[in-house]
């Protein structure tokens, strides 16, 4: 049995050797497979469609099986395409721009092949941008090595992509501001962040269709848009905010892969809101130059009208009509209870023999608050407050815990930390109740400030 198998292998090897022996095979002629110089997509050949691009196998054909390994250069001929477009030979076609495709610059052809496919990858952005028109790219072969030649008629072919047959109108990926279409009142919801010096407002951008690879889109202020609405009376009484002076926004927003919504933060200076507390500050933002997909021309710009009364956080500590504490430092007037609310982080309230301590603010009328700050003092981190509550009352006797913190650490001296909590009730009395330090028998704190949130 074994001699028989060996004989078969020997005969097959001889047959293959006879077929591909260099001196017995002549050089071949190389051509691009087409129909009268046109490669229609869709057409007889297959192509692969993905979310971000399509891949077209441009097929090379040979006059016979290739005798040996050789290379052929691959290029494009934009002049030919432009000439055919100008004389309307290609109908409504437009030139496929270089930024929208990738194409190998050469092909290595191995021996024994009858055909060889070159992958032409075309961005879906081009197909979406020119939807309803054809995209044209002329591919030209040159410099076939090893004495192989190029077919005179087949060395050039035009790939013609019929965009409306590759995708439907409903498949186009449009980019837009999520809430574009009318003037957006801000704040819109509760996901904004208030601060002493600035307010952060999240703004979202939406991608229609099925999400694919990551991409970015540029952002810019467009003051003329907002000013035009002020001038024509749509935003009568409003004040235009200046980019860079009154607010800042990032240069771009990034969409992670497989994501349909991305957000960026618009940062507005609190001082600018205070300066326009009786006006309606407005600004406009525009999307441009996405690295993928298309802009929805009707929703690429958003106009924001800000309500300062809902965005300004107010320190109401000094508005109290009475301030009392559980204990007092009677031995050192420079470190007594008034130093806790004197709005000076370089002073402090210090107590010895600490067990607990509370500080209470009374107001003339009930106040609604949802934030406060705590500032560490100058030395001895083990004296810092670790556990505490913020409590509210309307009679000074019955207290409701509004916020509870445990195991809090201050990373440095004179550090101010802001805490927020959910509260819709107004109280006439508020108190800070500290129940533990970081191990010391002394307690110290530079500041406690109570903030009124809109």
UniProtKB/TrEMBL annotation:
Full protein name: DUF1735 domain-containing protein
Annotated organism of origin: Chitinophaga silvisoli
Classification via Pfam families: BT_3987-like_N
Organism placement in taxonomy: Bacteria, Pseudomonadati, Bacteroidota, Chitinophagia, Chitinophagales
Domain (BT-3987-like N-terminal) ranges: 37-146
InterPro entries to which the protein is assigned, alphabetical: BT_3987-like_N, Galactose-bd-like_sf
């Amino acid at each position: 049995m074994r001699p028989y198998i060996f004989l078969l292998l020997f005969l097959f090897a001889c047959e293959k050797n006879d077929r591909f022996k260099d001196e017995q095979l002549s050089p071949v002629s190389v051509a691009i497979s087409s129909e009268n110089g046109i490669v229609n997509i869709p057409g007889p050949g297959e192509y692969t469609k993905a979310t971000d691009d399509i891949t077209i196998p441009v097929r090379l054909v040979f006059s016979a099986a290739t005798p040996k390994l050789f290379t052929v250069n691959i290029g494009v001929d934009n002049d030919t395409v432009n000439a055919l477009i100008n004389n309307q030979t290609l109908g409504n076609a437009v030139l496929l721009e270089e930024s929208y495709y990738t194409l190998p610059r050469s092909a290595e052809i191995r021996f024994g092949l009858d055909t060889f496919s070159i992958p032409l990858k075309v961005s879906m952005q081009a197909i979406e941008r020119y939807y309803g028109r054809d995209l044209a790219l002329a591919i030209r072969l040159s410099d076939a090595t090893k004495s192989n030649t190029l077919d005179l008629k087949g060395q050039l072919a035009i790939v013609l992509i019929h965009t409306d047959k590759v995708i439907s109108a409903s498949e186009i990926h449009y980019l837009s501001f999520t809430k574009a279409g009318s003037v957006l009142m801000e704040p819109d919801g509760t996901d904004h962040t208030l601060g002493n010096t600035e307010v952060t407002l999240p703004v979202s951008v939406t991608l229609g269709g099925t999400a694919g690879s990551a991409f970015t889109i540029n952002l810019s202020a467009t003051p003329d848009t907002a000013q035009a609405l002020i001038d024509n009376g749509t935003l009568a009484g409003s004040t235009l905010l200046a980019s860079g002076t009154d607010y800042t926004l990032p240069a771009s927003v990034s969409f992670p892969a497989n994501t349909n919504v991305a957000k960026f933060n618009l940062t507005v200076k609190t001082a600018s809101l205070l300066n326009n507390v009786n006006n309606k500050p407005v600004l406009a933002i525009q999307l441009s130059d996405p690295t993928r997909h298309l802009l929805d021309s009707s929703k690429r710009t958003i106009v924001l009208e800000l309500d300062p009364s809902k965005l300004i956080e107010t320190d109401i500590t000094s508005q109290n009509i009475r301030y009392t504490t559980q204990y007092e430092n009677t031995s050192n007037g420079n470190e007594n209870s008034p130093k806790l609310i004197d709005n000076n982080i370089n002073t402090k309230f210090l107590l010895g023999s600490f067990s607990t301590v509370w500080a209470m603010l009374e107001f003339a009328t009930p106040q609604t608050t949802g934030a406060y700050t705590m500032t560490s003092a100058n030395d001895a981190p083990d004296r810092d407050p670790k556990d505490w509550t913020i409590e509210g009352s309307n009679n000074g006797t019955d207290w409701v815990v509004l916020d509870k913190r445990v195991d809090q650490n201050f990373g440095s001296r004179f550090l101010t930390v802001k805490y927020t909590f959910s509260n819709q009730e107004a109280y006439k009395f508020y108190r800070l109740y500290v129940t533990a330090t970081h191990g010391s028998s002394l307690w110290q704190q530079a500041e406690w400030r109570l903030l009124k949130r809109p």
